[in-house]
Amino acid sequence: MTEGTTSAAAEGADALSRLEQEGEIAADYLEGLLDIADLDGDIDMDVEADRASVSIISDAGGRDLQKLVGRDGEVLEALQELTRLAVHRETGDRSRLMLDVDGYRANKRSELSELGAKAAAEARSSGEPVKMKPMTPFERKVVHDAVKAAGLRSESEGEEPQRFVVVLPA
After folding, report:
1. CA torsion angle for 71, 72, 78, 80 (degrees, to 10)?
2. pTM more than 0.85
3. At what angle do helices 74-91 and 3-37 cross, to 10 degrees?
4. Is the pLDDT of residue 37 over 70?
5. What are the structural domains, with CATH classification, of the chain?
6. Which of 17, 104, 141, 158 is 20 to 30 A from 9 via CA?
7. What pLDDT, on the 0 to 100 scale, is given for residue 14?
8. Where in the numbering of this chain does the R3H domain appear (predicted)?
């Protein structure tokens, strides 16, 4: 192995251990929150696409955990930001950690991918740009990825919280 290869491997290992550390800090924070709220759930940690990923999974029925999702995922978004702040407080680094509760974000990702693919098909067949409804940054990212996978381009327009995706024809 050359020195450059060893260095790149070491950097990759450092990044992985840093993301694992973020996941550990987030898990500790969320366990404390679950205790305070008297909610039952298991915490699962992973590293996906160069970011820490933490999921709270119901261990019995899961109805209580829906309180952590809220209407249209609003509570989940806020909880994710609080968790990122807790990680930042411990590490001093900005976190891109993703939080999911009871599969809400995973299901949403699947729905949005389908929506993005349909919008791409519509733009391709009509030859006209397709404007979508306002979305959160997470939702827009999933739609952009789906449009790109369909072979078209998309852009975000507008100001938060009314920012939306426009799918451009070929």
Report:
1. 130
2. no
3. 120
4. yes
5. 3-102 (3.30.300.20), 107-168 (3.30.1370.50)
6. 141
7. 83
8. 106-170
DSSP secondary structure, the chain, as one string: --HHHHHHHHHHHHHHHHHHHHHHHHHHHHHHHHHHHT---EEEEEEETTEEEEEEE-SS--TGGGGGT-GGGHHHHHHHHHHHHHHHHHHSS----EEEETTHHHHHHHHHHHHHHHHHHHHHHH-S-EEEEE--HHHHHHHHHHHHHTT-EEEEES-TTS-EEEEEP-
